[in-house]
């Protein structure tokens, strides 16, 4: 019986799949206890302060969801809003400064 050998094309596909899997978002959602601890330690800004920056960008928008994530050792608030025009927006703001990192239609 011959040993099973990967064909060159199959091996390439497998390598691409593994590469894609390894590079998929290395974001980690933080729970409320972790968020509170980081806030008390002064590592991140209060949610209210960062949220106000997001709402100032889209006056009259409704808050849909907020998550605190850690991406590549950086804490990011992910804020989802529904604008007065009915467009869902996803904003990423650095949790330590409130700096806007991303603003896209969701």
From TrEMBL:
Residues 45-101 form the PepSY domain. It comes from the Bacteria. Pfam families: PepSY. Keywords: Signal. Residues 1-27 form the signal peptide. InterPro entries: PepSY (IPR025711). This is Membrane protein. It comes from Pseudomonas koreensis.
């Amino acid at each position: 019986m011959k040993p099973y050998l990967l064909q060159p094309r199959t091996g390439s596909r497998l390598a691409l799949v593994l590469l894609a899997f390894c590079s998929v978002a290395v974001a980690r959602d933080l729970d409320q206890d972790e968020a509170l601890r980081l806030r008390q330690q002064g590592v991140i800004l209060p949610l209210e302060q960062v949220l106000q920056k997001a709402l100032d960008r889209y006056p009259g928008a409704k808050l849909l969801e907020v998550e605190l994530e850690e991406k590549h050792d950086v804490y990011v608030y992910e804020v989802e809003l529904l604008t007065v025009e009915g467009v869902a927006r996803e904003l990423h703001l650095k949790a330590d400064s409130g700096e806007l990192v991303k603003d896209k239609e969701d």
